[in-house]
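Project outcomes to date are best conveyed with an example. Our students and postdoctoral researchers have been running inverse folding experiments weekly, and each run begins with a structure described purely in tokens. The record below, which covers 148 residues, was selected by the lab manager from last quarter's runs and is presented without edits.
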């Protein structure tokens, strides 16, 4: 196994671990501050947060560590705007992207998981779709790391 391949697989593994830690921490904060929302959202809400977090963290590693170029125009514009901030030399150009993706996932969970009623099938499907729409590009990024 070449050094580059080993290094990129290592970055992929680190990305998954960081995503799990960030998701877990985010979910614990949600459980602590709005436990009824976390309980109502359940696994579907947790999956939504994880999928979006994996995409965000894998983009962070890909762009700021492995020097990949973001292909999605909206994401690229966020990364470009963040790169222009004075924090870029210290934090990189994707930290804001991570915060936005995780924050939007939590906002979606809070919006759909109304504790005054059970989580409906449509709301559950929306959370699962949000998770999948993050998970698929996140896994694609990991595959790109391993095969670059």
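After processing, the design step wrote out the following sequence:
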């Amino acid at each position: 196994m070449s050094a580059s391949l080993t290094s990129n697989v290592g970055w992929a593994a680190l990305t998954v671990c960081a995503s799990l830690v960030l998701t877990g921490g985010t979910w614990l904060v949600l459980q602590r501050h709005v436990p009824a929302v976390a309980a109502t959202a359940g696994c579907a809400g947790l999956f939504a947060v994880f999928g979006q977090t994996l995409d965000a963290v894998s983009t962070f590693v890909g762009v700021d560590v492995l020097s990949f170029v973001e292909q999605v125009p909206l994401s690229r514009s966020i990364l470009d705007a963040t790169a222009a901030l004075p924090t870029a030399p210290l934090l990189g150009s994707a930290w804001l992207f991570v915060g936005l993706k995780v924050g939007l996932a939590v906002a979606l969970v809070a919006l759909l998981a109304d504790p005054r009623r059970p989580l409906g099938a449509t709301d559950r499907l929306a959370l699962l779709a949000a998770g999948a729409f993050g998970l698929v590009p996140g896994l694609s990024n990991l595959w790109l790391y391993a095969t670059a």
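Residues 12 and 92 are 18 Å apart (CA to CA). Residues 3-147 form one domain. The training component of this project remains on track.
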